[in-house]
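Lab channel / #folding
Pinned by the channel admin:
"Please post every new chain as: sequence first, then the structure tokens as a reply. Keep commentary short and put observations after the output so the thread stays searchable."

First post following the new format, from NK:
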Amino acid sequence: MRPADMFVQRAAQFESEITVSKEGHRINAKSIMDVLTLAAVKGTELEIEAVGSDAESALEELAKLVEGQFATDKTVEN
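Reply from TO:
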């Protein structure tokens, strides 16, 4: 699974409104099309914001995902 897919799927698990910003461009973190428009590559600085009942949990989980460089327990072979 690609990082954008992983990020959107994780964000969708939360009720809070979650946005991601890059260089002033803010998008809905639960929309794969929006996330792809960021064209973020490794090393891109992003700002994640969440508002709602589970905002703190959402931010923690998404930060872990990004900081872990989208690592999974499965090894992908090419």
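NK: Residues 35 and 78 are 25 Å apart (CA to CA).
TO: also worth noting, Strands lie at 17-22, 25-28, 47-51.
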